[in-house]
Amino acid sequence: MSTAQPFKLIMLSAMYENGGNTTHRLLDGHPELFVYPFESQIGTAMSTNFIQTLVPYRYCWPEFPINGTVASDYELFYDEELKTLLRVPERSKFRHAGLEMNETDRKKNFEIYMTGKDRTRANLVEAFYVSTFQSWRNYNRSGKEKAYVGYSPVIGLDAEKIFADMPDAQILHVVRNPYSGYADTKKRPFPLSLKKYIWTWNIMQHMALTYAEQYPKNFHLVRFEDIIADNGTLPNICAKMGLTESETLQHPSWNGARLDQVYPWGTIRIPTPDANIATMNELTAEEKADIRISSLVMLRQFGYENL
User: Fold this and answer.
1) Reported pTM
2) How far is CA 77 from CA 35, 128, 149, 277, 294, in A?
3) Cis omega (within 30 of 0) on the bond before 252?
4) Would you say residue 307 lies in a domain?
5) Residue 283 domain-assigned?
């Protein structure tokens, strides 16, 4: 993608374990997309809003100090997964992925890209993505790329900020039934309690429905269940975002190389309808009942009430 072209950002959003990583990997091989290698986690420690008690700042739209510098702005991006790989690769769960990048080059490219530009939030986010792909030495380019894809869980909560900064940006929000989502969340080393998980899921989906109504051309909703059951769902969403159909959307990949499992990009290893239901049925009857009574309003909104 030439820097002379207008910058176009597509942000993926999803409640935890709702299929965001899977969708990210399904988009990976699309020839018209620069797809960030891992969760981009573009939030900074200055990111604050009224939902801060619900979600960690790393998943929010970033904020920057007025008196900062471009060099310090780069460091403020949380970006844990890529920065960990570049700085202490032996501690990264992606150490075997084969990404070739030097962080010194990346930071230099970030600063060069910002030369002559105002230190606005939009310009800094743009520099974050562009400099990453300028520095990724073994990225599998098609030469047809025209948009950048980032994934930061629940970033859809900041849709108003994103569209205020980048009116042409797109948000693709993925919804998965909360039974399967919570069952996968329980596999994390430090899982949320059932109550906090379900109420965060409820609020996230309520706001997503609201933003889809408010920004019908920019905010797109899709069920994870539809993505994995119907090969036409993701191509249709891509068409709405101005992308052509690609056979790569039919399987997950990383840097264009097909993946047999999505792991370690997320807890969903095999994205199939049967696996999704099997995951749901790992819960006890009591857990299922608690989830149903706490989320019935949203379950009905997304057609999950009869699961």
Assistant:
1) 0.95
2) 18, 8, 16, 36, 35
3) no
4) no
5) yes
Residue numbers of the domain that contains 104: 9-301
Cα separation, 302 vs 286, in Å, equals 22
**Does 3 reside within a domain?**
no
pLDDT of residue 2: 44
- Strands 253-254 and 257-258 come out as antiparallel
Q: Which residues fall within 8 angstroms of residue 252, CB to CB, at 6 or more apart?
A: 22, 25, 26, 28, 258, 259, 262, 271
Q: Which of 120, 145, 174, 159 is nearest to 8 (CA)?
A: 145
pLDDT, tens digit (0-9, with 9 covering 90-100), for 142-183: 999 999 999 999 999 999 999 999 999 999 999 999 999 999
Nearest alpha-carbon partner for 47 in 166, 188, 152? 152
